[in-house]
Write a structure and sequence with these properties.
The complex is a heterotrimer of chains A (450), B (300) and C (291). Chain A contains 20 helices and 13 strands. Chain A has 450 residues and is of the alpha/beta class. In chain A, helix 12 runs parallel beside helix 13. With 300 residues, chain B is mostly helical. Classes of the chains: A alpha/beta (450), B mainly alpha (300), C mainly alpha (291).
Chain lengths: 450, 300, 291
């Protein structure tokens, strides 16, 4: 009895010592080679985007690595996702890596709950030279990149070429200014080509883009990039009211229709041939091509911009991937591996042709799938050209606001009130600004931001 | 259950001494009215059930037919494929399981806590009984919304977000159930309690062997009521559950709708699937449901 | 001594319920009051004591005042309609004919339908482009209404959904009350020469008045606490036309992360519910003693 015990004990200790020696001798890789590090990835890509594209990435990643395994969890809309993230930030229920939309940037940085990807970039000397400058300009806060750009988009104009022809408009020349859009929409409706010249969903993002296209700021302190913003400024700028006037006037004159807030509604109307034009993210390009299914020719054009606005341009939209501090270092490292993977050229190209989001890096365009798709569907170039034609300045960098989700809601309230004829444009913006400024004040106060 | 022709109305007509032809005319009018009411009842039933029936018919349509205008009342081509599609787009079986666990645990918990509390209020003479009972009842006046935010913060700090305990814990006690059972317990004759005491049975035995078996109808009512209301909860599960795998059925339904391109035929299939368990429960337990709901209303 | 022992025994039975109530009802109530008096961080922590400043902000906020107005309007749309629709159904279901049980089940069916399911079904029926309701309207040459995007129709649309879903409950309660009306009462009135309508108004309605009152109260309390259907159908819009109190609380707390403000809103709701419940008990007591 005794002998067996001692022998087993000896083997055990020997084994332990041996392993210990091995471990000490090896320079431990940041990710353990023993069991795969499992991490959770939260995202807001639902429906087609989620099932096919994101899951395909995750599967490809999991198959290619033995040391890291990723589980993707769909969390609903971008708003739902950031709310869940906020709720879990205090606890251990936080994921290792999460997608967060563009306007969540300031809050995520202020929360101090993230590991800036700049840390990993610096440590590995990761090369970001191929990344689009406009994209980096958006996501850099104080010259540091806190999150890895993942899916980027910008707003473009979609139009029905057949209806243009029917109304006697040149199908290869989309309208470029506010006036042209209004004129085209009027001609389309009055000429009987369609019941609705343009359908614009009440989406605050469009308002932000339209301000930037005119070269004006959304918030003070250089859009919150020179110092934390303390107020929004669109109620002081005539361009803000001008946008609302134009929007409301078109609806009032019956040349534009109001589909409400969800862009899914305006997409459906456009794809079903009920409206000649719509504005939306380039991210829905692929699905619109599918939905319109050869029923009509789909044209794309730039988002409207006044001809004299030299400093005007588009803001980068979409989302980025954030690595959370609440998980152990091994998981943070694993998250970085995943994040690198999804921003690599092959994945970015696949993302591009599967959706319409454009790649975060230029070398992705050289990928075969990207080239093929561009050859077949030149519409895929519109958004990125629009972006590359945008100068980089505070207006086009976009605003940083800790309360941006709420601010966006308020701007949507203002648009809605104006479009429905409840308030004058100026009044609507003043009311919205008042509420937003109050929210900013509370935010800065309670987050200890001076 | 007397039929209408034997009603006192008929008798009173006779009593008023109307002539036989007059009576025949009156009988004809009454028959017409009866038929008219019968027809009306069918029409009304169809109107009330229409949304559900339309949901069912939509769930059997193909995606193309659903988007068609004008809409059809019944599918031209029956398509059962929406049901597997709904189960694929959202893990409905998992949602059903979560809801079953949640509703089941809450029902069980409420049955236990309410029985114990009602027993004490009905059979134990103790100082402050009236005050404690009022304390219980006072919780009925505190709407869930007032406790919502602090409960959320509590559950979060306990690490119970996204877990079954988080879903279940706040609902384990019920003043309504306690009240319901107490009222019932009070109808149990005094003699039974005295007999039990004389026999030397402890209070616990009395509860377990006599009170509870006698209270089966009331317990059934509470169980069905608790199950139905937990199954249908919306706001609390929305707040507490984050991950798809832990969602309950009502929130899961809303998920089906939040896709980029809503396919109504699939969403309606999901709705039908989710409504099925409660419909079955309702039809089976109709009597108990009615008793439970009317307990507060008619008698007060 | 004996009473102390009895107290201990009783507490053993009550401890479970008391613990749950203490943790999830009484303590949160106090904590909510506290939250409402503080500036809170977006994470839910207390930042600074500000007394009644949250309340002051609420009562000068057009959004909050709008949510009060919307809630009252919602009650006006829903509560009477629930009774007006439920009572005829209950009367029909009270007939003594063969197969009445099937009708009773059919009329009370919506009890088995959750508010989420009801909202989704109605959202589909209310679709402005391919929805059945607009189609039926078009058959009578009515306009195509944007039920959920038109601020004039959004609240009625949500109210219709709510009325339909609560129909089953109303029918069950009113039917039980009708069944409790003694036949002799009705016949005596009829023999006295009363017409159908007069009998109904002067005999039946008073006889079932406690149930009518109960249905009204439950419906009103339900309105005060409505959330699910607004969340699914309109998210409080358009232009706040359906921004009922509870939805507004939810947005403030879990979207804008202004916990203190939302807690203050919840306190206002509490006062409303309390006032209403006290009213219910007081009036109910009078009814009961009147009977």
């Amino acid at each position: 009895m005794r002998a067996r015990v001692t022998r087993r004990r000896f083997l055990k200790t020997a084994g332990a010592v041996g392993l210990g020696a091995m471990a000490a001798g090896m320079r431990l890789p940041a990710v353990s080679a023993q069991a795969p590090t499992r991490i959770v990835f939260w995202h807001a890509m639902g429906g087609n985007l989620g099932e096919t594209v994101v899951q395909a990435f995750v599967n490809k990643f999991n198959e290619s690595r033995k040391d890291v395994q990723v589980e993707a969890q769909f969390q609903g809309s971008y708003d739902d996702l950031i709310n869940k993230l906020r709720a879990s930030l205090g606890s251990s229920a936080v994921p290792a890596v999460s997608q967060v939309y563009d306007i969540g940037t300031r809050f995520m940085v202020d929360s101090k709950a993230v590991v800036p990807v700049q840390d990993f970039i610096d440590r590995e000397k990761f090369d970001v030279s191929q990344f689009e400058p406009n994209i980096l300009a958006y996501y850099r806060v104080g010259n540091r990149l806190y999150s890895m750009p993942f899916n980027t988009s910008t707003a473009i104009l979609y139009y029905n070429k057949d209806m243009f022809k029917q109304a006697g408009l040149n199908p290869d020349q989309p309208p470029r200014t506010f006036e042209e859009i209004e004129a085209y929409a009027t001609k389309l409706v009055r000429g009987g080509a369609t019941q609705s010249g343009i359908t614009i969903a009440i989406y605050g993002w469009f308002f932000e883009q339209l301000l930037a296209r005119q070269g004006v700021l959304y918030a003070n302190n250089g859009n919150g990039r020179d110092a934390p913003a303390t107020a929004v400024v669109y109620d002081h700028e005539e361009q803000g009211a001008r946008i609302l006037e134009w929007w409301a006037r078109m609806v009032k004159n019956g040349v534009a229709t109001n589909p409400g807030r969800p862009t899914a509604a305006s997409q459906r109307a456009f794809a079903a041939g009920q409206t000649a034009m719509t504005v939306d993210s380039t991210a829905v390009l692929k699905s619109l091509l599918t939905q319109s299914g050869g029923r009509f020719q789909l044209g794309t054009g730039y988002f409207p911009k006044p001809p004299d606005a030299k400093t005007g341009g588009s803001i980068v939209g979409g989302a980025s991937a954030w690595i959370l501090r609440g998980r152990p270092p091994a998981e943070q490292q694993a998250a970085w591996e995943f994040v690198k993977f999804i921003s690599a050229p092959p994945q970015q190209a696949a993302w591009y042709v599967g959706t319409g989001y454009f790649p975060v890096r230029r070398d992705a365009y050289r990928e075969p799938v990207a080239r093929q798709t561009l050859a077949q569907y030149p519409q895929f170039l519109t958004a990125i050209s629009e972006l590359r034609n945008s100068p980089i300045n505070r207006a086009t960098q976009g605003a940083l606001l800790g309360v941006f989700p709420e601010a966006r809601q308020k701007s949507e309230d203002a648009i809605e009130a104006t479009v429905l004829g409840r308030k004058s444009p100026q009044q609507a913006l003043v009311d919205a600004a008042r509420d937003v400024n109050q929210a900013i004040a509370v935010y800065n106060r309670t987050m200890g931001i001076k | 259950m007397t039929s209408e022709s034997a009603t006192p109305a008929y008798a009173s007509a006779r009593a008023r001494g109307l002539g036989s032809s007059r009576r025949r005319a009156r009988a004809l009018r009454r028959a017409l009215r009866r038929v008219g009411l019968d027809a009306l009842m069918i029409v009304v039933a169809l109107i009330v059930l229409f949304p559900l029936l339309f949901a069912l018919s939509t769930s059997l349509k193909t995606g193309a037919e659903v988007d068609r205008y004008p809409p059809t009342l019944w599918p031209h081509v029956l398509n059962f494929g929406n049901y597997p599609a709904a189960m694929q787009q959202a893990p409905l079986p998992r949602f059903l399981l979560n809801s079953f666990v949640q509703a089941g645990a809450i029902t069980l918990g409420q049955l236990v806590t309410a029985s114990l509390a009602a027993f004490a209020f009905a059979f134990v003479e103790f100082p402050g009984r009236q005050w404690l009972f009022f304390l219980f009842l006072s919780t009925l006046m505190i709407p869930g919304e007032v406790t919502l935010i602090p409960n959320y913060l509590t559950v979060r700090s306990l690490g119970w977000l996204d877990t079954y305990p988080g879903l279940i814990a706040p609902y384990l006690a019920t003043a309504f159930g306690t009240f319901l059972l107490r009222q019932f317990f009070l109808t149990i004759p005094r003699e039974l309690q005295d007999a039990a005491r004389i026999d030397g049975a402890s209070r616990r035995r009395f509860l377990w062997m006599i009170v509870l078996p006698l209270s089966r109808p009331a317990l059934a009512t509470l169980a069905i009521y608790a199950f139905l209301s937990s199954w249908n909860q919306y706001l609390w599960p929305l707040l507490v559950i984050n991950s798809t795998g832990m969602r309950t059925v009502q929130i899961g339904l809303a998920l089906l709708q939040s896709q980029e391109i809503i396919s109504w035929s699939v969403v309606m299939a999901g709705v039908v699937l989710i409504v099925l368990p409660t419909v079955v429960l309702f039809i089976l337990g109709y009597r108990h449901v009615v008793r439970g709901l009317t307990a507060g209303a008619v008698k007060g | 001594m004996k009473s102390a022992y009895a107290l201990l025994q009783a507490l053993a039975y009550l401890i479970a319920s008391l613990a749950v109530f203490a943790a999830f009802v009484f303590y949160p109530l106090v904590r909510n009051v506290q939250l409402s008096l503080y500036d809170t961080t977006p994470f839910g922590g207390l930042s600074a004591f500000i007394g009644t400043r949250n309340y002051a902000q609420l009562f000068t906020s057009p959004d909050f005042l709008n949510s009060l107005r919307v809630t009252v309007l919602f009650a006006v749309y829903t509560v009477p309609a629930g009774i007006v629709c439920g009572l005829p159904l209950a009367l029909l279901a009270n007939r003594r004919i063969r197969g009445i049980a099937a009708y009773r089940t059919a009329y009370s069916f919506t009890i088995a339908v959750s508010i989420a399911a009801a909202a989704l079904i109605w959202e589909w029926m209310l679709d402005p482009n391919v929805g059945i309701l607009n189609y039926l309207l078009s058959l009578v040459h009515g306009p195509r209404i944007g039920w959920l995007t038109d601020p004039h129709w959004a609240l009625p649309a949500v109210a219709a959904t709510t009325v339909w879903q609560s129909l089953g409950f109303n029918v069950v309660v009113l039917l039980a009350a009708l069944q409790g009306v003694p036949d002799e009462l009705v016949e005596a009135a009829r023999i006295d020469g009363g017409g159908q309508w007069a009998v109904f108004l002067h005999v039946v309605v008073p006889a079932i008045s406690p149930a009518l009152f109960f249905v009204g109260v439950v419906a009103t309390l339900g309105v005060l606490q409505s959330f699910g259907q607004v969340h699914i159908l309109t998210q409080g819009g358009p232009v706040g036309a359906t921004n009922v109190i509870v939805y507004s609380i939810y947005r403030n707390a879990f979207f804008n992360f202004r916990f203190g403000l939302a807690a203050a809103q919840a306190m206002v709701l509490f006062v409303l519910v309390l006032a209403f419940t006290v009213l219910q008990f007081a009036v109910f007591e009078r009814w009961v003693s009147y009977q």
